[in-house]
Amino acid sequence: MMHMTLYWSRYVTLLFDSWRTDSWPSYLLSLVACFLVSAFYQYMEDRRLRFRSLASSSSAAAAAAAAASSPPPASAASPLLLKGGASRLARSARLGAALLFGANSAIGYLLMLAIMSFNGGVFLAIIAGLTVGYYVFRFEDEGVAVVVDNPCACA
């Protein structure tokens, strides 16, 4: 039977029927795995944001270079398409950013589902992993203005 309130026990089923803990070593190993995956989530979020800022700055630089090399016609204020390799670079950067977003969203939803096991130890391990991961990987982001496109914590 699934718990609907927070409980404290070493017996927990996480994400899959085959991931069950029945002893203290298996429970502690599961808590360490939850901690590491949640810290990895923060690392991936940092990489995604840095890649996105790099992709946007490279596409802006490519657009500026394309605009500087040939003056725009009077009817167009900015180029709609980048020329040659610059547009290919921008497309591959957008694809990479989209793939990182998808992978990070999947990890975030899996962490949310693990917390929905309502086990107190799992909850604390994930929160601790997110906190440590934020401190280690994303603490420098506080001084940099980052535009967040989705306020949802799991995205």
From TrEMBL:
It comes from the Eukaryota. This is Copper transport protein. Belongs to the copper transporter (Ctr) (TC 1.A.56) family. SLC31A subfamily. Keywords: Copper, Copper transport, Ion transport, Membrane, Transmembrane, Transmembrane helix, Transport. The lineage of its organism: Eukaryota, Viridiplantae, Streptophyta, Embryophyta, Tracheophyta. The keyword Cell membrane does not apply. It is found in: Membrane. It is a multi-pass membrane protein. Its main location: membrane. GO terms for cellular component: plasma membrane. InterPro entries: Cop_transporter (IPR007274). GO terms for molecular function: copper ion transmembrane transporter activity. It comes from Rhodamnia argentea. The chain crosses the membrane at residues 24-44, 95-115, 121-137.
